[in-house]
């Protein structure tokens, strides 16, 4: 006879593959409406689920009051994010809760989005897209919606951590001159050409 899987209350919907993976080792109780809970409702749902763990997101403020109201059965708070400033770590420690996060998971996605925004702003992609959607695009013109190239331009990065380094790597592919500001200089092999 196999042991019952621990019950995990999942505060927001996750990608299908993640939810499917959860069912292999846990009994997930999902927020099928995928709307954020008020603190009292979150606690009520966790209690009703009989959860031993809560998989939360940054929109869930796991304050000292929320943590204190969780049943003793809850042993872990796992956040589906890199940051964990929405969880009161002092309160979690006082209640012997394990707190986990997902470091590194968003490094590439964030750097990709930063590069997307940089390119879109430089090349005026948003205004060109708006013209097309409104039906106002009449014809090509040598001066219309071209913007400026990023190649050869200087990119300043504030904070050369994982995301800053990933952005620098992408910018190098556009022959950008990279400068950065950080608390301490990085070793040369991590500067990404800055």
Explain this structure to me?
By secondary structure, the chain is of the alpha/beta class. It has two domains: 7-100, NAD(P)-binding Rossmann-like Domain (Rossmann fold), CATH 3.40.50; 107-190, NAD(P)-binding Rossmann-like Domain (Rossmann fold, 3-Layer(aba) Sandwich), CATH 3.40.50.720. Helix content is 36%, strand content 15%. The strands form two sheets. Strands 2-1-3-4-5 form a five-stranded parallel β-sheet, sandwiched between helices. Strands 6-7 form a two-stranded parallel sheet. Helix 5 crosses helix 7 (162-172). The termini are far apart. The mean pLDDT is 93.
What is the element string, with H for helices and E for strands?
Answer: EHEHEHEHEHHEHE
The CATH first-level class of the largest domain comes to: Alpha Beta
N-end to C-end Cα span = 59 Å
Shape: elongated
Q: Which range does the strand content fall in?
A: 5-15%
Q: Treating each run of at least 4 consecutive H or I residues as one helix, how many helices?
A: 7
Give the helix/strand class.
alpha/beta
The tally of domains stands at: 2
* Low-confidence residue ranges: none
Q: Helical residue percent?
A: 25-40%
User: Architecture of the largest domain, according to CATH?
Assistant: 3-Layer(aba) Sandwich
The CATH topology of the largest domain comes to Rossmann fold
Q: Can you give the mean pLDDT? A: 93
